[in-house]
Design goal:
Helix content: over 70%
Largest sheet: none
Structural class: mainly alpha
Number of helices: 3
Shape: globular
Number of strands: 0
Length: about 40
């Protein structure tokens, strides 16, 4: 589960807006948005 979350986070950071918009996991999308805003 940790690996999957990490992969999702990395992918989210790579795509940023796209990942935040089409993220299936709420936590992943929020984390991605937070990282992108930073």
């Amino acid at each position: 589960m940790i690996n999957l979350t990490n992969l999702m986070t990395v992918r989210a950071i790579k795509t940023c807006n796209q990942a935040y918009t089409g993220a299936k996991n709420s936590f992943a999308s929020i984390h991605a948005k937070f990282k992108c805003n930073k």
